[in-house]
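Handout, page 2. Input:
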Amino acid sequence: MQETPEFNHQADIVNSAIRFINSWFKQSKSITNELNDFFILPGNKILGKDVIIGRLKGIFGKSDEYVGGRFDIIDVNFEMLNDGKGMGFVEGVAGYREVIEKQSKIVSGPFKLYFALHNESWKIVNIEFPGFAY
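Output:
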């Protein structure tokens, strides 16, 4: 008798976080694949995905490139809610060298990516990441 495998939510959240971080280091447009249609910020402020994409383009546009990106995931957590919805996060530390006109500086610090599960897909709904600011 074959059992139906359970969906591995933790692995899905971690893999999405890894794709986001690697896309960040490459300043890749594929970073948008991991983003939800809207972001939920403290104080119940909601921003659309287009605002976040514009912010990422502005951040990436300031640098010539990022070099030597590294990260460590320290904690992953999620909670399933009703109706196939859920909330979760991935946190850790990340660092990279930002190069601007042949000058470089190290950008590093803790990160926390917040996720929401909707339609069986975990998407980022809030970003705390070195070099990112709303």
